[in-house]
Design goal:
13 strands; Arylsulfatase, C-terminal domain; Alkaline Phosphatase, subunit A; globular
Length: 496
């Protein structure tokens, strides 16, 4: 019987597709990301179908889209608040549980996106937490407890990954030396767990917090990139950019409407510094794999959960269907079975990964994803269109995206607004073609309506079976006050 491979699944949080050297970025240096991409397949059309942390991670964990997980945004109840048993009923065993049932030793290290007081058992024999710990929420976070126990000279630091202030996007430097950051800790623990003697094949999930803000790379990565050589954000027509009300809402909430172009370049410089530091940590992991006698039999999968606008389209954070938010890097390496240096242009998404990895382990379970294993090894037909949703169906927050060919269609239920972009001619999505190409909009809207006939999405349709349009209403704008400081205590200078 053929030996099943080891499986190493590596993630970053909030890493955009175009922030890597391998994808044409002329500034950021990412030799190890580029190395990983070249040793296998680089999926150039990979998407986060719900581009925000918790929904994306639940799709990865379950192989199920939000229609089945019930998680459409970060504000939805977390699984550890009582949904876990019901999530199992709807979706089946989580990825680590499924692989454990197939005989794998399983371990997970890093960011799982649980609050420290709410860690749940999700199938890992060894689970090491290194979350976005802050403001005394240390208990249960292994990284924070390690700092407190082994490096008490840094016990005064309340937010180990950088300060989450009212001004969420603020260029920072890590208060810790590089060897004590969460990224280094995650790499160290991953190396230890990979090297444990055990006759079983292993599945390891390694999840870095960065480059999610706050953008606080350690020395010397904090000064690696000069803001003066970084381009200003790419902004289209303000009305088009902010047809997505989530952009206006989030910009105001995190004070991002105060960031001018120089501030945006400064933030991006630190964002790139974070990426280069993670790249260094990734290199340590890849070197360890290369030293193993079974390196040819080790599958390495890498992706991010979503991207970050970083000022592009007058936007910050994620949660939109602009490319900067939803287009993600996705690499797959398996030297024994896959060619090196191949670019795959098929449409793929997070939901496809569950079936791919369970198939590599010997017993495929696809769930909501496409048959990516069949596409790679059995000439299966790739998906012809990709459907994505954000926001609870039946509410004004609901929006959906259809990607088909070179076109991307986005529908907003608040007001029934539409966007249509032709990506092969307009990669920056600066021209909304919705009014110029009504027939194509109608075609893609019908595809969206067909997908919304599925269980969990029917509330997004009106009585006639069309995607529901709510009367346009302005969403109240509310500031996030991380430390309870009243808004009138700030001096605000708006950049108009």
């Amino acid at each position: 019987m053929k030996k099943v491979p080891n499986i190493l699944f590596i993630m970053c949080d909030q890493l955009r597709f175009d922030a890597l050297g391998i994808h044409g970025n002329p500034i950021v240096r990412t030799p190890n990301f580029d190395r990983l991409a070249r040793r296998g397949i680089d999926f150039s059309n990979a998407y986060s179908t719900c581009p925000v942390c918790i929904p994306a991670r639940m799709t990865i964990r379950t192989g199920c889209e939000p229609a089945r997980t019930g998680i459409y945004e970060n504000e939805m109840p977390r699984p550890m608040d009582g949904q876990h048993p019901d999530m199992r009923r709807r979706c089946g065993p989580y990825l680590a549980e499924a692989l454990r049932e197939q005989g794998y030793r399983t371990f997970g290290v890093g960011k799982f996106h649980h609050l420290p007081e709410g860690h749940e058992e999700i199938g890992y024999e060894d689970q090491v937490f290194a979350e976005e710990t802050m403001l005394g929420l240390w208990q249960g976070d292994h990284y924070a407890e390690w700092i407190r126990r082994e490096h008490s000279e840094f016990d005064f630091i309340e937010q180990l990954n950088g300060e989450r202030t009212e001004m969420y996007y603020m260029p920072q430097t890590s208060p810790l030396p590089a060897e004590l950051t969460s990224e280094s800790y995650v790499a160290d623990r991953a190396l230890e767990l990979m090297s444990q003697p055990d006759p079983r094949p292993w599945f390891g999930f390694v999840s870095f917090v960065g480059p999610h803000p706050p953008c606080a790379p350690p020395v010397p990565y904090n000064r690696m990139y000069n803001p003066d050589i970084i381009s200003n954000p790419v902004k289209g027509d303000l009305e088009t950019d902010q047809m997505d009300e989530q952009i206006r809402f989030m910009n105001y909430a995190i004070w991002a409407d105060e960031i001018n172009d120089f501030g945006a370049r400064s933030v991006k410089a630190r964002y790139y510094g974070e990426i280069s530091y993670i790249d260094h940590c990734l290199g340590r992991i890849l070197d360890a794999v290369d030293r193993r006698p079974d390196k040819e039999e080790t599958v390495i999968l890498f992706c991010s959960d979503h991207g970050d606008h970083l000022g592009d389209h007058h936007a910050w954070q994620k949660e939109s269907y602009f490319e900067q938010s939803c287009h993600i890097p996705l690499f797959l390496s398996w030297p024994e079975r896959l060619p090196a240096g191949e670019i795959n242009r098929d449409l793929v998404c997070h939901a496809d990964l569950f079936g791919l990895l369970t198939a590599a382990a010997g017993q495929q379970e696809e769930r909501d994803g496409a048959d990516l294993w069949g596409q790679l090894f059995e000439n299966a037909r790739p998906r012809q269109e990709l459907f994505a949703v954000y926001g609870r169906p039946g509410t004004p927050l609901f929006k959906c995206m259809v990607r088909k060919g070179a076109y991307k269609y986005i529908y907003f239920s608040n007001g029934g607004k539409e966007q249509l972009f032709q990506l092969d001619h307009d990669s920056q999505e600066l021209e909304n073609l919705a009014k110029k190409e009504p027939d194509r909009c109608a075609e893609l809207r019908a595809i969206a309506a067909a997908y919304c006939q599925r269980d969990g999405l029917r509330a997004a349709l009106d009585e006639g079976g069309e995607v529901l349009a709510h009367p346009e209403t302005a969403r109240p704008l509310v500031r996030i006050h991380q430390f309870g400081i009243p808004e009138n205590d700030f001096t605000v200078t708006r950049n108009r």
